Amino acid sequence: MYSYITGKVANKTFNSVVLETGGIGYEIGVSGNTLYDVNLGEVAKIYTYLYVREDEMSLYGFSRDEEKKLFLRLIDISGIGPKMAMQILSGYDLKTLTVAIASGDVKTLCKIKGLGKKTAELIVLNLRDVAAEDLAGENSIGAFGGDDIADAVSALESLGIPKTEAVRAASEASKEVSGVENIISYCLKQLL
User: Is residue 139 predicted with pLDDT exceeding 50?
Assistant: First the structure.
């Protein structure tokens, strides 16, 4: 219903902001990342999602459209509601969260408060390929994982490895080694 709201940040709490626009103050539930991105008294653009159930109507907001897209993917998973999705988004920055999902790093996901192993595995099962594609998209590999990962993915693709698998492998390898050559070598040892 609302794609985004632009207005002055009138108030901040630990999990919401009040965005004042046109004489109306919208209370918007936000993740820790969005809360960090907006400043009291400044104008902010918040991408929003209106959650409506028969006993609840809540407005959730995100400082970046990518965060909103991940939120929508999370709430599509059975057993994850908006409050849990916001908790997940507050657990890590978007880059770390996307890389953890793409590489199947359940251990990292389980460090998020309130997120158990089964739910973390469910997230990986449902979103792993989508997260890998997000990382593999133009310009986003460099934004999420640095130029070394982007170069390693390109090299692995030229060797015939599918893009999503190359992204997963390079993301995982970058946790163990650094430098393009080392990442490629690590990936080849794991994949072949």
Answer: no
